[in-house]
Amino acid sequence: MTTTANPTTSPAAQPPAVVLELDNVRREFDDGHVLALRGVSMKIHDGEFVAIMGASGSGKSTMLSLLGALDVPSSGAISFRGQNVAELTDLATFRAHNIGFVFQAFHLMPTLNAIENVQVPMFEMPWTVRERQRRARELLEAVGMSHRLDHMPTKLSGGERQRVAIARSLANEPSILLADEPTGNLDSRSAAQIMDLLHTVHAEKKNTIVLVTHDPAVASHADRIVTMKDGLILSDERTHRKSSEKSVS
Ligand SMILES: Nc1ncnc2c1ncn2[C@@H]1O[C@H](COP(=O)(O)OP(=O)(O)O)[C@@H](O)[C@H]1O
Ligand SMILES: [Mg+2]
Questions:
Q1: What is the tally of structural domains in the chain?
Q2: Does 9 fall in a domain?
Q3: What would the mean pLDDT of 22-50 be, rounded to a whole number?
Q4: Residue 65 C-alpha to ligand 2 middle, in angstroms?
């Protein structure tokens, strides 16, 4: 008897692995006077594209910094593929190998040109100069910047700077890409182009993307939208875009 299984359902019944998990994470500042996160628990799966939304001050950037091991919780635990991040001895190396960051203000090195900026994270890897240059050139080609390799950041538009920053974030082929308001400094046309680029990256690399935004149009690109309020998760929903492709679990 032939099967009537939904062809969009993955043949492998295994759900994607949990790549990042927050377990009752709190983050306080100023000796406990500011409660940026008040006990947040969440699992992020391999290959998910998650948008984090919420008003200014709701804890989005704090959460992203913790997910990327740029910061540590006041209490609670964060794990990466089942390993408690607090037990890692060298967070800088961990970040360099596993996580790419994209920021609203680009954070390019002003004294380095585009191809040099893309190579900055590669110094953590055992690659030769020639290899670094080749990889940086390929990454800049992939983000549509092959005609701007030698340009300094000040000679680039906002959208172009963010393309360079995205190329840099992919330098070491991280499995996780964290982006904090990546379109926040861009006009709507450049913002749409950057979102298209992030989509292409996600489709090609099959990496996990967590993107902070307060723009619903930007968030609508994600598979899942987590909304924060006052340091807590207010809602956590699958978006319509991918819901039809999800298997029932
Ligand atoms: N380094 C810090 N020192 C003191 N307070 C901070 C610090 N970082 C964030 N906060 C506070 O924590 C809360 C959450 O901030 P943040 O995560 O940046 O929010 P969002 O990114 O959603 O705008 C805010 O009240 C903010 O002022
Ligand atoms: Mg923020």
A1: 1
A2: no
A3: 97
A4: 10
CATH number at residue 215: 3.40.50.300
Contact 154/187 with Cβ under 8 angstroms?
A: no
Q: For the segment 61-106, what is each residue's pLDDT rounded down to a tens digit? A: 999 999 999 999 999 999 999 999 999 999 999 999 999 999 999 9
pTM (2 decimals)? 0.91
Enclosing domain of residue 150: 48-69+90-243
Ligand nearest to the CA of 180: 2
Q: Which of 29, 64, 70, 104 to mutate to test the pocket of ligand 1 (most atoms within 8 A of CB)?
A: 29
Q: Does residue 35 lie in a domain region? A: no
* pLDDT for the residue numbered 167: 97
Residue 102, classed as helix, strand or coil, is strand
Ligand with smallest separation from the Cα of 232: 1
Is 63 in contact with 37 (CB distance < 8 Å)? yes
Q: Is residue 102 part of a domain?
A: yes
Per-residue pLDDT of 180-210, as tens digits, reads 999 999 999 999 999 999 999 999 999 999 9
- Give, in order, the Cα–Cα distances in Å from 89 to each of 9, 93, 177, 227, 241: 40, 9, 22, 32, 39
Q: Which helix (H) or strand (E) holds 164?
A: helix 158-169
Q: How far, in Å, from the CA of 68 to the mean position of ligand 2? A: 14
24 in a domain, yes or no? Answer: no
